[in-house]
Amino acid sequence: MRKISLFICSALMVGLVSCEKELDQAPLSDASAANFYRDAADFEQAVNGIYAQLRPYPDRHFNLSEVRSDNMYATTEIGVREHEPINNFVNTLETNSLVISAWNENFNGIMRANTVLDRLNASVVPDDAQRNRFEGEARFLRALYYFDLVRLYGKVPVYDASVSPAEALEVPRSPVAEVYSLIVSDLNTAIEMLPPSHGAVNRGRATSWAAKSLLALVHLTRSAPTYGIEGPGLDVNEYAEALTLLNDVINNGPYAWVEDYSSIFDYNNENNPDIVFDIQFLSGGLGTGGTYPGTMAPNSYFNAVGIPFPAGLETKPLSSDLIETFAPEDERLGVAVQQGFTDEFGNSDPRPFFRKFLDEDDYGLDRFDWGINFPIIRYTDVLMMKAEAILQGAPGTQEEVDEIINMARVRAGLEPVSGVTLDMYLEERRREFAGEGHRWHDLVRTGQVIEEMNEWLPTEDTRNVMPETLDPNYIIYPIPFSQLQVKEGLYEQNPGY
């Protein structure tokens, strides 16, 4: 089946790339785009360009969620890789390339969505269904990019339309509640405008079910405690709203339970019934391959298995605490983690790494070109979020929670349990979604991040590179230094940095 092309070769992209060079400041409008949006084919291409900005999403959440969390102790004796300050909770991250890229990449996606929304009208796309789909996709993606930003940085500037460079310099960071207002509005509109499914030629595009699932996650995240900071939690108790959406997806959506855990991530079983929304990748040197499977394993492993790479990234070891949370018989451990390997010189390397998305027989040109899709929302996640909503106070029973958790446990080859608590739920999510970029967000959303990390630090930080204890300021990242320099006083840095 044809996947959505992540990169579009056209005059539009030339204009967008030239504009993005200025995005160290803010998302700007593209004056040359006015001559491009002439018919439905142009808008199809432009919407594909919004999807294209999802390419770095898996790497971003690996570095800023997995590496940040208790799933990884991603530090080495070298101490020079950009992910290590993320791992080590240093307070000078405003110049870190990963923090900067996350800001720019998300705002580039927002800029593209705004450009489409500003120019979309019935005169250029007369077909109502097609025009609604374009608008629904643009709003869904804009909401996703803003949700990414609010979880990472807290307050951010809100652009609900294209702006000129001069106008951008007058837009301050908006309160988190205002950012969420746009996210919720966009997703509600997307739910109304997006179709419930797409034909094979458009497989991978957002659907109304994906929008409902994402909105449920937004409600859960908004309901998190504030921790006394201007972060993603507003303590608004919207668990019932989340549950209503999740029940709709579960009861009426086209998804189904996949009995074989490993098959969910099989290169030959993409778009299986567990996938609600994912990022579509194609390998083969087209610029549409995923880079993330090649960043999770050490250089020496790829050397040993004969996969070439143009540049090197040191390994990002998993924490011993994560490995120990898996029972020996848990089938998810072997799918998600490789525990050591033999290097090209015959030496044994015991370091564990994530391999959930790695198939050594199915790569493109090198270790940064993989065709495996990356799931953003899975049906298993929808079910587990229902359990979370009930545990947090939404109407429901303990039996419903236990049933959902035991579905995942039995699939993994484990015995069922009863009386599932929030702590038990989080540990089950940790094993189920290991390597999928959820862990830090899960801890923050459920109010457990400070307690959990402060219990973990003394036993795992064997190199003494982390703070003795974490305070809530570490929950979000700093505003990139380049943004603070655009206009004096426009933005204030997040506390703690």
Question: Can you describe this structure?
Answer:
The N and C termini lie far apart (47 Å). The protein has helices spanning 11-20, 40-52, 57-66, 83-88, 97-119, 128-153, 165-168, 176-193, 208-222, 239-252, 299-305, 320-325, 331-336, 379-391, 398-411, 422-432, 439-445, 449-460, 481-484; strands at residues 275-279, 337-342, 348-354, 374-378. Helix 5 (97-119) runs antiparallel to helix 6 (128-153), helix 8 runs antiparallel to helix 9 (208-222) and helix 10 (239-252) runs antiparallel to helix 14 (379-391). It has 497 residues and is mostly helical. The radius of gyration is 22 Å and the shape is globular. A hairpin with a 5-residue loop joins strand 2 and strand 3 (348-354). The strands form two sheets. It has a two-stranded antiparallel sheet with strand order 1-4. It has a two-stranded antiparallel ribbon with strand order 2-3. It has a single domain, classed as Serine Threonine Protein Phosphatase 5, Tetratricopeptide repeat (Alpha Horseshoe).
Strand content: under 5%
Q: Tally the beta strands.
A: 4
Biggest beta-sheet profile: 2 strands, antiparallel
pLDDT averaged over residues: 91
CATH class: Mainly Alpha
Query: Helices and strands: which structural class?
Result: mainly alpha
Global geometry = globular
Poorly predicted segments: 5-31
Number of domains: 1
* Residues in helices, as a percent range: 40-55%
Q: What is the straight-line distance between the termini?
A: 47 Å
Radius of gyration, taken over Cα atoms and rounded to an integer in Å: 22 Å
What are the secondary-structure elements, in order, as H or E?
A: HHHHHHHHHHEHHHEEEHHHHHH
Remind me, CATH topology? Serine Threonine Protein Phosphatase 5, Tetratricopeptide repeat
SS summary, helix count: 19
What is the name of the CATH architecture?
Answer: Alpha Horseshoe
- Sequence of strands across the biggest β-sheet: 1-4
Organism: Pontibacter diazotrophicus
Domain RagB/SusD: 342-497
Subcellular location: Cell outer membrane
Domain SusD-like N-terminal: 36-220
